[in-house]
Design brief:
Elements: H1 2-25, H2 32-60
Length: 70
Amino acid sequence: MVGAAVFFYGLLVSFIFSGASQNAKLQRPNPPMVSYLGYMLVGVTTGVSLLLFAHALGLSMGYTLLSLTI
């Protein structure tokens, strides 16, 4: 299930960023939805990476911050 979510997230990131890159190359403004989704994807990626970094740091100190097992 996580694999499917990561695959879908990767496709979405690739689609949005390639569209924004193409618009920049052609010197056209991005549609508002592309800009909003781009900022949202960058924020989600940053948030998840910080959360996982905090979890790894906690594990190195002997604390469990997230229960990642079922």
